[in-house]
């Protein structure tokens, strides 16, 4: 397991810190609800950078809330309110605590990332056979459910087969999660397409209420959990331009940064110009998708 350089989460009065991931901090509120806070942290290649991207946490929080609304008739979600302590206003939501299913529910309409690696090795993704001749960025014959198991902090998620999910949570739950995941993808893909954006893939997390109802949790359809590509620039056979941290990744890998990925050291601080362009990319994605001004 890799060492992760996650900074200490700030104390929030009246809330108990539970967990910090690379980007978000989770707290418990009196009464048992959760406070999910999105920081301005950014990670590339599993390193949390020393430099933050101003407004990123708020942009992603607002985007996720907007999507929860778009999906509300398909699946209930965990959001209770956005009435949060002043220190985290705009970047946090109060949500109900769910018993999370131990499955990362991924839907893919296009082939890239770990899906592409699996396909190149076996012609399959998560046990689903795909046609020959697909390239990086190819559109799949139809969207597929490609579950993964959540890794320990710092490890990569591992793709698993649908049969593995059945073994873990039972056939009925597995079928429900697959159907919900593909339903959410279909809705979101069509909304994004109308706005000139391809939703290549997305990762969802579901959990159960005490009464057994399945509820959509975590964050949804943000650039941290999904791949959004400008439709006009889509061209299979190469890495697609995308609305996320690509600017940061490209800079880190360029000679300009002086960083050696193989060194095992964290990348150096980002130049202000890279920070500004990255922030602009998140704002652009927010505005295009939601139709709202930032
Ligand atoms: P990273 O995303 O950095 O790889 P991570 O997933 O551990 O690491 P976060 O995404 O910041 O870090 O953590 C959010 C945690 O909260 C996840 O474990 C997620 O499954 C969990 N979670 C999300 N929504 C709920 C909920 N409603 N109830 C309980 N747990 C939730
Ligand atoms: Mg996470």
Protein model, in words:
- The protein has 6 helices and 18 strands.
- The chain has a domain at 99-233: ATP-grasp fold, B domain (D-amino Acid Aminotransferase, Chain A, domain 1), CATH 3.30.470.20.
- Strand 2 (24-28) and strand 3 (34-38) form a beta hairpin.
- Helix content is 29%, strand content 23%.
- It has a 5-stranded antiparallel beta sheet.
- The protein binds adenosine-5'-triphosphate and magnesium ion.
- Adenosine-5'-triphosphate binds at residues 19, 21-24, 26, 34, 78, 95-98, 100, 153, 205, 207, 217-218.
How would you summarize the topology of this molecule?
Blueprint: E1 16-20, E2 24-28, E3 34-38, E4 43-44, E5 47-48, H1 56-70, E6 79-81, E7 92-95, E8 99-100, E9 105-110, H2 113-122, E10 124-125, E11 128-129, E12 139-145, E13 148-149, E14 158-159, H3 162-169, H4 171-194, E15 197-204, E16 206-208, E17 214-216, E18 226-230, H5 246-253, H6 272-290
Antiparallel strand pairs: 1-2, 2-3, 3-7, 4-5, 6-7, 8-16, 9-12, 9-15, 10-11, 13-14, 15-18, 16-17
The structure holds adenosine-5'-triphosphate (ATP) and magnesium ion.
Adenosine-5'-triphosphate (ATP) binds at residues 19, 21-24, 26, 34, 78, 95-98, 100, 153, 205, 207, 217-218.
Protein name: Phosphoribosylaminoimidazole-succinocarboxamide synthase
GO molecular function: ATP binding; phosphoribosylaminoimidazolesuccinocarboxamide synthase activity
Pfam families: SAICAR_synt
């Amino acid at each position: 397991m890799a060492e992760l350089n996650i900074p200490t989460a700030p104390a929030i009065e009246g809330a108990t810190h539970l967990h910090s991931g690379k980007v978000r901090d989770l707290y418990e509120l009196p009464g048992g609800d959760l406070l999910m806070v999105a920081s301005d942290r950014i990670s590339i290649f599993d390193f949390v950078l020393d430099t933050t991207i101003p407004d990123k946490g708020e942009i992603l929080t607002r985007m996720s809330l907007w999507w929860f609304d778009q999906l509300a008739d398909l699946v209930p979600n965990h959001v209770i309110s956005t009435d949060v302590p002043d220190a985290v206003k705009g970047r946090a939501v109060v949500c109900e605590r769910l018993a999370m299913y131990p499955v990362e529910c991924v839907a893919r309409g296009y082939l890239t990332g770990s899906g592409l690696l699996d396909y190149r090795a076996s012609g399959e993704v998560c046990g689903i056979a795909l046609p020959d001749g697909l390239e990086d960025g190819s559109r799949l014959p139809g969207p597929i459910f490609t579950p993964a198991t959540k890794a320990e902090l710092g490890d990569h998620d591992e793709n698993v087969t649908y049969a593995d999910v059945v073994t873990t949570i039972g056939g009925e739950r597995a079928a429900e999660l697959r159907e919900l995941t593909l339903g959410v993808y279909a809705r979101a893909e069509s909304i994004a397409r109308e706005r000139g954006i391809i939703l290549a893939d997305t990762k969802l997390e579901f959990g159960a209420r005490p009464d057994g109802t399945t509820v959509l949790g975590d964050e949804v359809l943000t650039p941290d959990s999904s791949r959004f590509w400008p439709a006009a620039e889509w061209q299979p056979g190469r890495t697609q331009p995308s609305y996320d941290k690509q600017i940061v990744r490209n800079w880190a890998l360029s000679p300009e940064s002086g960083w050696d990925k193989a060194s095992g050291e964290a990348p150096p601080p980002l130049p202000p110009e890279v920070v500004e362009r990255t922030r602009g990319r998140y704002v652009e994605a927010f505005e295009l998708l939601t139709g709202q001004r930032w």
